[in-house]
């Protein structure tokens, strides 16, 4: 049976894939502050350990570090199974992973560039969604949130391959919702514009940085979309760019 919105958030479990991403620190803290149990999944164990060391000490047993290459389905499936064994269930999944190649004009791209973008974004989104879905279907409920950039809908200069892969993530997410909505699955895609990370401060103009989504806004949107309060949404594409002006 699908969640009726009354489940205590302190008992909920979220898997955060790409837990060493630039936005991951804020996302992990936001879920922990909301009372979630968090399975933090990343490829680089040392970087993941460093990330988790920056979390409040009281997080303690509510955080489970998991090391897996998100491009390898078997590794991701084992990690998700470990999270279910530890916490008993998986209520929600978010994917922050992003890797690929530098942006460049389409005429300067190669097939290897395309493959790198596919492996670094579309494949990782697929494996994380595919690994959690059987557990969610068995429960009769689950919240999946993928993340795409604004280039998924309107790619900027040099972002043709990046945008194509992100557009595929949007379509895949809508397809998951279409296939499994009746089974209690809520799948939505958060399309974020610029995000005000420390790295972005060095590359954005002052005006663009001021208009960018804050880390707290980004993490808060993910928290909402993985909560029972968002049970009325599935197959939605939410654009998080309220201050950006074209």
Name some characteristics of this structure.
single chain; globular; alpha/beta; 246 residues; 16% strand
Tell me what the structure shows.
The protein has helices spanning 24-33, 45-53, 73-87, 111-139, 160-180, 198-203, 206-211, 215-225; strands at residues 13-17, 37-42, 63-67, 92-95, 142-149, 185-192, 237-240. Strands 3-2-1-4-5-6-7 form a seven-stranded parallel sheet, sandwiched between helices. The chain is globular, with a radius of gyration of 17 Å. 43% of the residues lie in helices and 16% in strands. Strand 1, helix 1 and strand 2 (37-42) form a beta-alpha-beta unit. By secondary structure, the protein is α/β, with parallel strands linked by helices. The protein starts with 12 loop residues before the first strand and ends in a 6-residue tail after the last strand. The longest helix is centred in the middle third of the chain and has 29 residues, at 111-139.
Distance between the termini: 43 Å
* Major sheet details: 7 strands, parallel
Which stretches are low in confidence, meaning pLDDT under 50 for 5 or more residues running?
1-10
Order of helices and strands: EHEHEHEHEHEHHHE
Q: Please state how the strands of the largest beta sheet are arranged side by side.
A: 3-2-1-4-5-6-7
Mean pLDDT across residues: 88
Counting helices, strands and paired strands, the structural category is: alpha/beta
Helix content: 40-55%
Beta-strand proportion: 15-25%
The DSSP helix count reads 8
Could you give the count of β-strands? 7
Supply Rg: 17 Å
* Broad shape: globular
């Amino acid at each position: 049976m699908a969640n009726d919105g009354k489940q205590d958030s302190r008992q909920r479990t979220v898997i955060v894939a790409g837990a060493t991403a630039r936005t991951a620190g804020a996302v992990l803290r936001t879920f922990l502050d909301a009372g979630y149990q968090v399975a933090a999944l990343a490829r680089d164990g040392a970087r993941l350990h460093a990330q988790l060391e920056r979390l409040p000490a009281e997080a303690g047993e509510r955080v489970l570090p998991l090391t897996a290459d998100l491009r390898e389905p078997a590794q991701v499936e084992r990690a998700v199974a470990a999270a279910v064994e530890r916490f008993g269930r998986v209520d929600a999944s978010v994917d922050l992973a992003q890797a690929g190649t530098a942006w460049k004009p389409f005429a300067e791209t190669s097939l290897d560039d395309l493959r790198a973008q596919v492996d670094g974004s579309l494949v990782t989104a697929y494996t994380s969604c595919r690994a959690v879905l059987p557990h969610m279907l068995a429960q009769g409920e689950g919240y999946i949130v993928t993340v795409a950039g604004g280039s998924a809908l309107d790619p900027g200069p040099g972002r043709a391959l990046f945008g194509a892969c992100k557009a595929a993530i949007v379509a895949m997410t809508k397809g998951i919702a279409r296939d499994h909505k009746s089974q209690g699955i809520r799948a939505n895609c958060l399309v974020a514009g610029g995000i005000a990370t420390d790295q972005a401060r060095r590359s954005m103009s002052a005006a663009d940085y001021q208009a960018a989504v804050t880390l707290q806004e980004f993490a808060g949107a993910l928290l909402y979309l993985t909560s029972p309060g968002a049970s009325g949404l599935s197959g939605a594409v939410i654009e998080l760019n309220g201050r950006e002006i074209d």
